[in-house]
Each structure stands twice: as structure tokens, then as C-alpha cells.
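Two proteins, back to back. First:
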Amino acid sequence: MTPLSEYIGTSFFSLDDYSFFSFWFTIICSRRYLFILLYFLSAYYKIVQLYRYLSEHHWKPEPDDKAARKIWIPGSAKWVYSEKCVIHDQDNLFGSKFYVLGDMYDKKILPFFSFAMEVRNKPSIDDYVNLWNDWESSVEQLSYDKCYKFWMFMLKHFSTETKKLSNCLVKLPATSGNNEIVLLDKNDVFIPDNLHLKKLFQQEKVFVWYPQNLAPLSRCELFDVYRKIGARNISESICMEEPSLLNGVELKQVDPGNICNVKVLAKLILSFLSSSSLKMEPNKRREAVQGLLNLSFFETKEAVNVSYSLSLSSGAIITKKADRMVRWQGQSSKFFTQTNWQSGNASLIKYATYFSEAISEGVLRENHDHVPALSELITLAFVLKFNNETIEFLMESKNLHCEDEEFLSSAFPSN
């Protein structure tokens, strides 16, 4: 066993009688008098030497002796209770909350603080939540560094056991086109699950913040954390309104064949409805396609606008308009389309996309989850100009087969 004198030196008490130290150690082993002794010290190196000595001898204060768990803080020159300390602060976020002993003491005596003084190794998830609560009430903007470190910690530790902590978080980080990070009510922050709506509202402070370099899988996981806390998908929070085109707008009725090959389109849709995972019953899929066949097609020179409204908890409503180029107006069985949209490949893809979405949403009103897949298929067919031979190959490559040839023959007898 190393003598106490090797840690603190013979000049510590200005005494040469080492029996004095043996006397002290006898008392230390059973009581807290060493800490009474420590309280009279202010020389950092001597306190460190005593901590080393206690560490080597596995000294630990009595369980109910809270006062003996005070720790000397060199920079502040004061004693603090152990619960105000942590060994490490890996994210450097808690400098105002805890005294980080790993920044003050040699790593060799850090285990002593954990073992004897019951100092926690690092801040807990509860500490992170409390830190966020402090930011909620004290700051409007947050630095990228702090926001990144906080939410990467939450992403790693937010498990099913800690979902209850979501009720403690009132605000979430939001960002807009200027990349500032602001803290907003979680009811007013949304997940950008729709790229069209994201682009439409990107200048507003309504979307949750996330690191742009985050891997797609990690980004989805972070969005799931936000959802558990209370953020909603933008696609589920938008109110879409389609202003009437029947009043004050010049309309010209046109042959559907001027826009697409309706028979090939109907065959493609029927094949999808029967062969996809949807597996719709024959009468149901024929009824869905009949709605398409009953449409009257009209052209207009005006923009076919759609209005998107987003309501906030304050009562404010953010409204954006977008030109969708086409519209299926279900109640009147009318399909509206803009004239003169053919002005290059970009316009072709844009029109084909909007056309396909309108047709897919009209056909699948009760099966909206399958709209993206059908829309993608129709978009490709539109770009291929609904060429019958080409579409047959497309259906074969997608393992689609039409089981409603008799229905098609009766619907298009002249063909």
C-alpha cells in the first residue's frame, strides 16, 4: 500500500511524524473527516493527490453522507455536490448545466468520481430533454452545431422506452430557404413527405430541420422521431381547393383522342387494377374505368390552378397556388386541360406527370395508396404516345395482363 506521504508530501502539514498520517487514514476509512480536511485546502495539486490516494484505497463515503460527496471545481474554486457534475460531455452542450470533470482532472482518477462520488458518466436523455426545454423558453434561433448534436443524440437514443419524453417537447426545429433554424410549436412544423408541396412552401418556416448530408435511411428515422413527438406530414395537413372553371372561363370541347389514346389508356388501367397487389374485383375495376370513359374533355387557355392552404395553431393560414395544367372534375364528369402546353421535353414530362396523377386519382378514389404506382405507369405510357405495340410490351415487362377484353370491345366497338 502506497504511503499517504508519497501523495501529499511531508510539507503538507509541516509535520515529519508519519504516524500522524496513519492516524488520519484510520479515521478516513470509517468517517468523512478527510473531506473536512479537504475543505480547508485550495491548492489544486494537493487536492488531486488526496483524490489519487483515496482512489487507490477504494475509499467511499457512507451512503447517507451527502456532504462527503462534494467535489472541488478548480476553475470556479468552490465545492459542489456530485449531482452537479458529469464525467464527460461528448457533445459540449452542457457547460452551463454541469461541471465536466473529464475537462478538469486526470483520467486516472475519473473512475474514483464514478465509484465513490457516484458521478454520472455523461448526461442522460432526460438531461437532453431538459436542455431542449430551456432552449424552448430562452432562444428563438438555434445554431447548426447545437441543433445537429442534439438531434443526432435523440436519433440514437429515442427508443420505445423513451417515447413518453415526447410529451415534454413543445417545440421542434424548423427551417426555410435562408437556412436559419428556429424553434416553433410542434403543431406548426411539418414533415416534407411530398416534394411538390415542399417546393411550393419552401420559403415558409413550416418544415422540420434536418442535416442536408444525412443519409436517406437516417433522415427517415429522424422524421419518425419528429412524428412521435408531434410533427405531421405536410401531405396530410394541406387543404386543397380546386376553383371552378365553369364560370367566366372560355372552354372548348375537344375529342379525347387529341390528348391520348383512350382505349390503350383504359386497357393499361384495367391491367393494373387486375394484376397489381390491388387485385380489384372485375365489376369494381370496370366501374372505375367507366368513370374515365364518361368524361367530356375541354381545353382552356387559362391556367388550371389548384389552391393549397395550410392552417397553423395561431389561426393563420398560409395559401399557395399552383398550375396543375389538367383537372378531373368528378361531379360534372369533365376533364379540363390547358392548350399550347407542348413547348419542349420538359413541358412534355410536366404535362404527362400532371395528366397521369389526375387520371390515377380519379380512377382510384377509394384506393389512394396505389395512386403513385399507377401514375408512374401512365406517365411512361404518355411519353411513349400510347403506341399500342409499345404499350403491349410495357405491360408484358411489368407482368400486367388485361382480363377485360370483352368490356373494352363493347366500350370501343368502332375499334
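And the second protein:
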Amino acid sequence: MNRQKTKQQDILVFVLCYAAYATAYFCRAHFAIALPSMISELNWSRTILGSIAGAFFWTYAIGQLVNGILGDILAPKILVGAGLSIASLCNILIYFFPNVRALTIFWIINGFALSALWGPIMRTVSLWYSEERQSRIALYLSTSMVMGYLFAWGGLGKILTYRSWRFAFLIPGITGLIVTFLWLIFLPQELSVSKGKDEISFQRKRDRVQKGQGLNWGFKIFFLLIVCTLTQGIIKDGVSLWAPTLLVEYAGFSEEAATQKALLIPIASLFGMFLAGFSEKLTKEDDSLSFALLLLLSGFSWASLRFGTNLDGRAIAILISLAGAFAYGANTVLITFIPIRLASTGRVSTIAGFLDFLSYVGSAIAGPLTGYLVESIGWDSALSLWLILAVIGAVSSLGLRKRLLQFRNIDEKKRESV
């Protein structure tokens, strides 16, 4: 294979992975932008809609665990193609059956289907690209979720100003089917092509896993990891789910103005992801410290919003965007850098799926919990909750620091000996 063709295929694989995951977020992020219209037009309570969103995250979380393992067994082309096509069909069916029962059933299936993407995509990165490029490629790919939000909150937000909320489900569904077709047609079958002296082939990774190389983290580490992922999951998806509604009910914007202001959040989240890369350099790839710093910054933003006085709508929108940005940065450290750094275990998809599973358990809790708190007490209670969780998550992350650094050093020595 000549150098020019190799470069072309590298670009092709990246573009397909980026398009697939951006579309996956397009097929789920629109729920938040449709929420205000669904509440007003259908007279559904926040608790009901929050519970439906929570059900999505539960199946998404369980799916991450299941599909993460399957992602190390099945070809990425098959698993990603199946997941994206099923999710697209679910969105289209919601358009034709706009009632609570159908929305709940199809949204639950949508969650499980979309969980089949991130783990296999991370596996594709670990197999296709050389080790020195994997972290950078993974960071770039993680920005695809922001693009999904921009399309959902920007493009669909404008459409919903003169169309029914049902179009927020139809358009992503059609887009998803188109991207699925492109994925199945153009993604190369061979994903363990040698790219350089430092690349470890999938066969050698699999052999080492079969010989017993594994993750010996212990109960304490898993407990702290659970706390970290639950807390940032509740914060991150609390913002992504409730931000448009928060801007309407807390900041006092109209639905149209809230849709426009909400665009600040995915843009700021993109900044947060690149800030995660900067924090990794600043801390010399100390994942626990990077995670803690970013989550504390998110907590500081919530504190400013909760206890600040005389805040106008613009200041509220900026603080919400910053809180979301730092939470997304922490999430990037968790589900992108850690799995890629442990690539030599041959379990990239499993690790990414497990961490995403824990993260979305938090997301599943965030939907109904936030809806209940807001209806029972008010938005200040939700802001206080997110602030407390940010502090708890940051402290727990520092408890992981020593063990993760030890494991990373051991892992690097094993790679050097291959």
C-alpha cells in the first residue's frame, strides 16, 4: 500500500467515525430542544418527560456495558451499522406515533442502539492508527458529539420555531439512515493494517489478553471510579437535557430566545474538550488530576450561578455554558484518554464501554431526579445538587490518582517490551 493511499484511508476512517458519532448525538440531543414544546403542546409533566429521558440513559448505560464487550468481538462495521440504523428507525417511528407509550418504547430502544457506537469506534482508532496518534485522533473524534448538539440545537431549533416538535425526531432519523449507508459501504474491512513500527496488531493484543493481562484495580478503585463517573454523568447530562428548559424557566427567555442561547452550550463544550487535552499536557497525562481540576471548575460555575446576585439572562447563559464545558472536559478525560492509554490490554472497547456505562447510569438518574427537584422545590435545588456532586467527584478522582498512575506506568513498560 503506497503512502498516498494510506493517508487517504486514514482520512476516510476518521471522517466515517466522526460522521457516525456526530449523527448518533444528533439522534438523541434533539430531545432537549423539543422538551419545552412537548411540555406546552402536550401538557406532559417534567417528571414524566424526565423519566422518559432517564429510561433512555438506563438502556444506554446497560448497552454500553454489553456492546462494549461485543465491540471487542464483532467487527466495528457490523456493530456500528446495526446500532445507528436501529436508532434512526426509532426516531422516525416516534414522528408517526406521537404518544407517551410509543415515545417511551422507541426512546428506550434508541438508547440501547446508540450505545453500540463509542466502544467500537474507540477500538477502530486503536487498531487503525499508530499509538503515537491515537490520543490525538480520539480527542478530535470526541468533538463529534458537540457537532451533533450543534445540528440538533441549532438547525432543528430553528425548524421547531415554525414546525411541530415531531420534526425534531424525523430529520435525525433520515440523516442516520444516510450515514449508516455510507458507513457500511465505505468503511474498510481490515482494521489492523500495519502503520508503523510502534503499532501493535490486533492479533498480538488479543494474544496478550488470552495470556491473562487484565485490569487488577480492586474494590476501592472501582468504588471511587463509580463515584467519579456517576457525578460527572449527572452534571454533564443534566446540562444537556435541561439547559433549554432552564433558560426558559430560570433565566426568563422565550422558547425561541432560549434555543438561540442554548447554542452557547455545545460550542462551550467543544472548548471544554480541547481544554481537557490542555489539562493533560499541564498535568503530564495525570488523568485523575485533570479530571478533578475540570470538575472543580464546573462546580465553581454552578456556585456562581446559585449564589450570584443580580445576574441577568446573558450571565446565566454563560455560567451554564461554562459549567457544561468543564463537565464535558472531565468526561473527555474519562471516556477517551483513559481507554486509549490502556490500548495494549486489547480491551479498548470494553474499558470505554464500562466507563460510559457508569457515566450514563448517572445520566439516567439525572433526568427524573432533576425533574422532581424542580417541580417540588425549584431550580435552586438542582443547581445546589450539581455543585455538591462536582466537589464529590473531584475528591473521589484524587483518590484514584496513585493507582491509575501505577497502572499507566506498568502498561507503558509492557508496550515497550513488545
